[in-house]
Design brief:
The chain is an alpha/beta fold. It has a single domain, classed as Alpha/Beta hydrolase fold, catalytic domain (Rossmann fold, 3-Layer(aba) Sandwich), CATH 3.40.50. It contains eleven helices and seven strands. The chain has a seven-stranded mixed sheet with strand order 1-3-2-4-5-6-7, with helices on both faces. The longest helix has 16 residues. It is globular, with a radius of gyration of 17 Å. The N and C termini lie far apart (39 Å).
C-alpha cells in the first residue's frame, strides 16, 4: 500500500442554487476547471455545481512528491466535507473519470449518479508509452511544437481539418497563463498510468452513464466495453464520428445525454 500523499490546497468554484442537488465536475490530465465552462453554465439553473482544479493544475497547490488517483479522490472527499456536501452527482472526464471511479468505489455513500466521459479502467503498454512520450515531448519541445504533435490524438481527421480549428486551439493554449508546468504534468501522468480499477468496478453502486467517442484513440471504446460489463448499473452512450475531446467538438449532443441521465 502506498503512503498517502500530502493533501494540497485545492482551488474550486461553487455556482448555482445552494439548495439544489449538487454536481461535482472533475477534469482530466493537464486541464483545469475552465474546461467545464459550457457545462457549468448549462447546469447552474438546476444544480449547485462544484468544479475544482486537481492538485498540480490550475490555481491548486503544486508539490514535489508523487501521488496517485486515490490521493486525488481524497482531495475531492475533503472538499465535499469542507462544503458540508453529503451526497453529489459526479462527472469525470478522462483522468477525472478515474478519480470519479475511485470516489464511487471507496466512498459510495457520497455518490448519487456517476457520469464517466472518455475514461479508462486501467492502462496497457501502449497507453503507458504514449503518456510517457507526451511528458518527454513537453520537456524537449517548445509549447507550440508540442501541441502540434499531440493535438491530433484528441480529435478525428474531420475535426482536425475544420478550417481554423487547430490554429484556434493552439493560440488558446500557447497563450494560456495557467498552462500546466512540465513537472506537474509528469506527476499527474504517472498517477494516471498507475490507476487500475478493473477488479473493483463491481463495487460501484451508483447508477452510471459512460459517454465515449467511437473514434477516440486516447481512451478507445474497448475501455467503455470493459467498464460497462463490470459496473452493475451502467449504460453506455457512444457519440459517432468524434474522438477524445468531444465535450469541445460535440458539446450539444454530449450535454443533452448528460442532462437526460441526470433528469431520470
Amino acid at each position: 500500500m502506498t503512503k498517502p500523499a500530502k493533501q494540497p490546497a485545492i482551488h474550486y468554484v461553487a455556482e448555482g442554487n445552494e439548495n439544489a442537488p449538487v454536481i461535482v465536475l472533475i477534469n482530466g490530465l493537464g486541464g483545469d476547471l475552465r474546461q467545464w465552462q459550457a457545462l457549468r453554465l448549462m447546469l447552474q439553473s438546476q444544480y449547485r455545481v462544484v468544479s475544482l482544479d486537481n492538485r498540480d493544475s490550475g490555481h491548486s497547490e503544486r508539490g514535489d512528491e508523487q501521488y496517485y488517483i486515490e490521493d486525488m479522490a481524497n482531495d475531492v472527499v475533503d472538499l465535499l466535507d469542507r462544503l458540508a456536501i453529503g451526497k453529489t452527482h459526479v462527472i469525470g472526464y478522462s483522468m477525472g473519470g478515474a478519480i470519479a471511479q475511485e470516489l464511487a468505489i471507496n466512498q459510495p455513500q457520497l455518490v448519487d449518479k456517476l457520469i464517466l466521459l472518455a475514461t479508462y479502467d486501467s492502462t496497457d503498454n501502449r497507453a503507458q508509452d504514449l503518456f510517457r512520450g507526451f511528458a518527454s515531448l513537453r520537456r524537449d519541445l517548445n509549447r507550440e511544437d508540442y501541441l502540434r504533435l499531440t493535438l491530433p490524438w484528441g480529435y478525428t481527421y474531420e475535426e482536425y481539418e475544420k478550417p481554423g480549428f487547430v490554429e484556434e486551439v493552439i493560440a488558446e493554449l500557447v497563450n494560456d497563463p495557467l498552462y500546466q508546468e512540465n513537472e506537474a504534468f509528469t506527476r499527474q501522468m504517472e498517477a494516471t498510468i498507475a490507476f487500475n480499477s478493473r477488479d473493483r468496478l463491481h463495487l460501484i453502486k451508483a447508477p452510471t452513464l459512460l459517454v465515449f467517442g467511437d473514434e477516440d484513440i486516447m481512451t478507445p471504446i474497448r475501455f467503455a466495453n470493459s467498464m460497462v460489463a463490470r459496473i452493475k448499473n451502467a449504460q453506455l452512450f457512444v457519440i459517432k464520428g468524434t474522438g477524445h475531446l468531444f465535450m469541445r467538438t460535440r458539446f450539444r449532443e454530449a450535454s443533452e445525454v448528460i442532462k437526460d441521465f441526470l433528469d431520470e
